[in-house]
Amino acid sequence: MKNILEVSGLNKSYKDFSLSDVNFTIPEGCIAGYIGVNGAGKTTTLRSILGLTKKTSGSIKLFGLEMERHEHELKNRIGIVLDDGCFYDELTMSEMKNIIAPAYTSWSEQDYMNYLSRFSLNPKQKISTLSKGMRIKFALALALSHKAELLIMDEPTSGLDPLIRSQLLDILTDYMNEGGKGVLFSTHITSDLDKIADTIIMINNGKIVFQEVKDALLDSFRIVKGDTKALNEDTRKLFLSLTETQFGFTGITNHTLEVQNCMPNIVIEKSTIEDIMLANINGGKE
Ligand SMILES: Nc1ncnc2c1ncn2[C@@H]1O[C@H](COP(=O)(O)OP(=O)(O)OP(=O)(O)O)[C@@H](O)[C@H]1O
């Protein structure tokens, strides 16, 4: 399978924060969820990929081509939805579109009009009067109207109501069904990824913690509940994170079989992506 995006050895240093040796790939046909808590380095990664932030070192390849050497051609093939929007507030959506569309060689006015209608957006409305959800829909309409093969979206669902979030997820599903596409979607609302992501990439404190196929990831971690008497020096080591109260313990493990074998009277439940993300931060074990 071809890789749509390859990030290798990406480093970026600010005064108080560094992205350190960030590596991940997005193969064709993959929706990758890029997760991490506030300040983990998601936006810095996405902006570095897009050349909006100057990286310290590393290689970004899109469709097998180096971003630095083929920036103009490659940007034509990417749809971008950033949380700050980068729009001129005093313009209408139609005027803003007239500035953006000529930058793309494969702009489709028909697709654009279809998306505006699907999103119930009026092209004559001023950008300053758009709600947050409307701004994101407008950014998405622009991103999807030039036959982009990779969509890069920074927190597209944050601040959106459940109805708009669910519409966005439907649109991404339709987009992927066209074939040959990829999506990199940063978020801390991990429940959206339960529905649509194929791969989960987690970043914490500027470092990649894991890149895993979502189903395999969800399969490998389990929540375990039981009496604290079952905890001892050895069994504690089987957990990434543990919470203990007077009523018992709750832990998250990726050693489920061992836990089952050596801990009696426990309850084992499935974990969510959020449980796994938090365990990888709070547990601190690698
Ligand atoms: N231009 C900058 N100059 C200095 N530090 C910066 C700059 N941009 C970001 N940072 C710092 O880099 C760190 C990572 O920020 P970043 O925006 O990448 O995180 P994030 O994971 O996207 O967080 P959030 O979910 O809150 O958007 C933060 O500590 C932030 O303060």
UniProtKB/TrEMBL annotation:
SUPFAM superfamilies in alphabetical order: P-loop containing nucleoside triphosphate hydrolases
Molecular function GO labels: ATP binding
Every ABC transporter domain range: 2-230
CDD domains per record: ABC_DR_subfamily_A (cd03230)
Entry keyword annotation includes Cell cycle: no
SMART domains to which the protein is assigned, alphabetical: AAA (SM00382)
Name of one Pfam family that matches: ABC_tran
UniProt keyword ATP-binding present: yes
InterPro entries for the chain: AAA+_ATPase, ABC_transporter-like_ATP-bd, ABC_Transporter_VariousFunc, P-loop_NTPase
Highest taxon in the source lineage: Bacteria
Keyword entries, A-Z: ATP-binding, Nucleotide-binding, Transport
The name this protein goes by in its record: ABC transporter ATP-binding protein
